């Protein structure tokens, strides 16, 4: 029985060993599969990204970024992995030296297994470090290796600005990474050597801790040596206080910079001290330099605090004056404010008919529509199908029939999410409904009798003042899914009556879905139908990343893009999207930051994306910008310097950049340092009434003739008001056309008299009894009154204000309509049915002699002629009757509202509006006929009159 049992046990043991081996193999296979899947997915993403970039001719950009990331990733992996392995290896060796075998866990004595564990931990830490280094440092490393000089040095250290923008950030990154890693290792060592107080008894543990502390001291010394350069781009003078100076201040110069050198020396001495004490075995005194260092750091903060409080604050301007000058000059340079031309604007009361005629181009381009109401109109009137949508309406200018005209323009894009539910099939969303169609364009200064925009391009296919040869919009602002063109399914082009017109995609900028590419992109898209569908052919193309903002960010993620792209119709009838790209930096010396730590910005790159092909071009808009030159060195095939003329003609100075510059100039226009220090002449953006609330005024585009110019040009401008005041003190503008693009100028108004500001005009509109009464009547009649943008329009040496008034009924399908236009000039303010009538009324007041027959009104009757007497009581009686009639109608209207009879109330309100319009038309007719009547009665009237008197 024993033999049997033994045999049985032996057999079971053999089975267990066999099963264990099988399980091990299964585990290895599962692990290998997981690794293959991870590597495969990562490789798939890289391969498909490369194919996509190559289809757009930007493969060199992809390989440059990938190479830099790989090299930095390898460097980060090596540093983190070697440092981790070195630390773990030393800890294990210290344990083996200090303890007996019986005191240690058996695992520590298994050399091969421990090596594998330590290598595994080191690899994990290395991968973590690799992701940090390559993710954060690849762009800084490329800039460091390829940077261009600014050609300007700082006034304190004499270093080129490029040192602060490119070199210093990379040095700080290296020091912080190594310092942080060494502190992490120190914490691990403290935890490991705290067991049984090894740090007191083990020579190896003490040496390990000492080496790590010494390296930390070395990194601290490097950190302090870099600190003085950092003072040139910060306002902090200590942990608790900030200076009024952006950049180097008095406290920095006198205390913080010398303190940084002292602390760097102490850190080095601390390192040497600890190494010597380690060699001598005097471990107890190693704490002394650490205590000295910490004490000096605290003392340095205290001294800085004392100097700022007791030396600088009592006499701040005198102490900070030389540093304020650098702050002023270098901030102007960082935001390109140094070349702004300042001029005096007299603000005269000189408006007359001749001036209006001389500036007909400016008058004809005064904007009568606003983007927000206009977008609603476009979406209701020019979409035609539920799946079409306008995402935005933009302002641009075109040469139309020989006239330079400012226009509104919007793209009719396709939104497949708005298709009927039964039509949301894979074929429809991926193969058939692939693009939007056409544009709508309207005048900025003309509206129909119903208050709707007057179109220049409209309908499907687009008809109007210009030919659009490629109206199909495959790429736009819509978050459109990837689609496949040139399939066996006909693409829907546009609706035509009861039928649909189909089309075939003719470009070759997509990704050919043939051979292995079809498999790769089916896996990348996670779309099995793409792989097996018989509706795809070898000629089929994948159009991926169709949102233009995602598209440019995917190609060049190192630029910052303006969030308001606009559509341009080129001379050949094709359409492109124009996007402004910004280049910015964080460490420009002495410059005040506009956002976070960013204190330098340029719009050096213009990007176009073809709406049909998706082709992307990056154009150099400011070739002399050092940041642009740096990126040209990094990516020589990315940016094109030659800009087509029909593209350059539609360059717009971006609103975001202009806003930043205008805000900075509101402070940095002050050249007197004492005035600048006290902020005595700070300018700010005015407020305006927009819709139903007061908001900060935004820059706006206008077409106008500048003083001294012979023709109108496209200008972006913004008024200024003094801080906490509402009168207009100046206005800033920037030119957009031709060789003058980017030229910024400021016109200052006289300070000794009031020039009305936008909010003052808004208040006067509110306080005008006739205007406010009419607006209130509309508001109470089931409609909403929308106040449009208030525009300040400079004309030669004077300025007028224009504001459109919209009326919109309170229902979902209503259309906002321009019903009135307010024009204000000096103390005069009028509201009329359109701009021409309002301007005419203003001219009647300020320039009465310009009206036809104005002189004849003042002529006396000739001999034998007599003016027909008029009973003065007649107009009074008529006015009283009209007022009584209005009062009765309004009472009836209020009664209908209280009874809930909405239809009757609306009818009464319509009657009221009709009578008001009739009275207004009658007044205009009387005014136009007044000169003729003033000539005197026709022959015979005198006799008739005499006979009547008899």
Notes on the structure:
The structure is a single chain. Helix 26 runs antiparallel to helix 27. It is built from 28 helices and 33 strands. It is α+β, with helices and mostly antiparallel strands and 950 residues long. The model is unreliable at 1-8, 853-874 and 927-950 (pLDDT under 50). It has a domain at 483-544. The strands form nine sheets. Strands 1, 22, 25, 26, 27 and 28 form a six-stranded mixed β-sheet that branches. Strands 16, 17, 18, 19, 20 and 21 form a six-stranded mixed β-sheet that branches. 36% of the residues are buried. A hairpin with a 5-residue loop joins strand 19 and strand 20. The chain crosses the membrane at residues 25-47, 70-92, 113-133, 163-187, 207-226, 260-279, 291-311. It is a multi-pass membrane protein. Residues 847-950 are annotated as: Disordered.
Short description:
The chain has 950 residues and is an alpha+beta fold.
Total number of helical segments? 28
DSSP strand count:
33
Rg computed from alpha carbons, rounded to a whole number of angstroms: 39 Å
- Helix percent reads 40-55%
* Mean pLDDT rating: 87
In what range is the share of β-strand residues? 15-25%
Anisotropy-based shape: globular
Task: Please outline the major beta sheet.
Answer: 6 strands, mixed
Detail the poorly predicted runs: 1-8, 853-874, 927-950
Structural class: alpha+beta
C-alpha end-to-end distance: 162 Å
